[in-house]
Design goal:
InterPro entries: FAD-bd (IPR002938), FAD/NAD-bd_sf (IPR036188), Geranylgeranyl_reductase (IPR050407). The chain is α/β, with parallel strands linked by helices and 348 residues long. It contains nine helices and 18 strands. The protein has two domains: 177 residues, FAD/NAD(P)-binding domain (3-Layer(bba) Sandwich); 135 residues, D-Amino Acid Oxidase, subunit A, domain 2 (D-Amino Acid Oxidase, Chain A, domain 2), CATH 3.30.9.
């Protein structure tokens, strides 16, 4: 089978990969390999909420989002539930409720025609004196000077570049149900008995989405147990329409972030750019892609070092969120914060 040669090969067509492909200088011959297909649906558990940080990231790009990506309804507060203490508080939030698959497809549609796009799954890749050779499961082979891993938590690029470096990971499980609640709501759930991370629910187009991040061992049992424990808080689930699961990273250290080496780069969650407190990743995906595109626009021989420096503020932001985590996840500190009523609002 004939192989093709490129300047930059991007693995992954989520917000990170799509943004990078759109912004790279046109002097490069670029190909993006994405495993998603247009009508296959988005298979990664995601509440589909665009945070204020993600909105700011899109604003930097001076682009506007079409209304058909929005989901119904738009909700202005999060209902925070601490199952262990029984405390409930509401906090104002400015999330945008959207259809995540449509959002991803929209970002892909913005990629210019000079970038080649193809569907496929990478089997492996190897380094050589000219760059990298990338092989797909369908037998196709590509050669590239630079390689970019935008392939999420289970990144083959990260695993190959850093085989001895691991990051704490969880299994994110999410189910969709026919909405049975009179008033749609968005919730954030803390339940120490089933997970030391968080869970979420969001009403979206007459469907209730419920998901959470759980330790890999017994993750499905913990997920089902948590659903049962939420019955006393008025949750009504019924029969699931769809069940999804994937690995999600949760950095615990500033040094968990890996940006790449040897003419290979990591962006988005593949690099570890994901909030350890909220698991929000879209803003980090877009921001890291912008920074890597800026790096490739420079006349710099050591692009890996330049990109590392450019991402310092993102790594610092992750570090600040690591410091914030105990106030959200330590039961006693969380209880004190919720009892104080700090920044909470009264909901009638």
């Amino acid at each position: 089978m004939k192989s093709e040669c490129y300047d930059i090969l991007i693995i992954g067509g989520g917000p990170a990969g799509a943004t990078l492909a759109r912004l790279l200088p046109k002097k490069y011959r670029v190909i993006l390999i994405d495993k998603k297909e247009k009508d296959s649906g988005f298979q990664k558990p995601c509440g589909g909420l665009l945070s204020e940080d993600a909105q700011r990231s899109l604003a930097q790009l001076n682009i506007t989002m079409p209304k058909d990506i929005l989901a119904d309804p738009q909700i202005f507060s999060v209902k925070t539930i601490d199952v262990e203490s029984g405390l409930i508080r509401h906090y104002q939030r400015t999330y945008i409720n959207l259809d995540r698959h449509k959002f991803d497809m929209w970002l892909l549609s913005l990629i210019p025609d000079n970038v080649e796009k193809t569907n496929g799954i990478v089997r492996n890749f190897s380094i050589n004196e000219k760059g990298y050779t990338v092989e797909l499961f369908d037998g196709r082979v590509f050669h590239t000077r630079y390689l970019v891993g935008a392939d999420g938590a289970n990144s083959i690029v990260r695993k190959t570049l850093y085989p001895n470096k691991t990051m704490p990971s969880y299994v994110a499980i999410q189910q969709s149900f026919r909405e049975q609640h009179k008033t749609p709501f968005y919730s954030c759930i803390f339940d120490k008995k089933t997970s030391d991370c968080c869970s979420w629910s969001i009403s979206k187009d007459d469907v209730l989405i419920f998901g959470g991040a759980f330790a890999p061992q017994n993750c499905r049992n913990d997920f089902e147990k948590q659903k049962q424990r939420l019955g006393k808080y008025g949750f009504r689930f019924g029969k699931p329409i769809k069940t999804e699961a994937c690995i999600v990273l949760r950095p615990k250290s500033y040094f968990d972030i890996c940006t790449g080496k040897n003419r290979a780069f990591l962006i988005g969650e593949a690099a570890g750019f994901i909030s350890p407190s909220s698991l929000e990743g879209i803003s980090f995906a877009i921001d890291s892609a912008i920074l890597l595109a800026e790096t490739f626009a420079l006349q710099s021989k050591n692009k890996e070092k330049k990109y590392l420096r450019k991402t310092f503020h993102l790594r610092l932001k992750i570090f600040k969120k690591i410091i914030k985590c105990p106030f959200m996840y330590h039961p006693m500190l969380r209880k004190l914060v919720m009892l104080s009523g700090f920044t909470s609002i009264d909901v009638k």
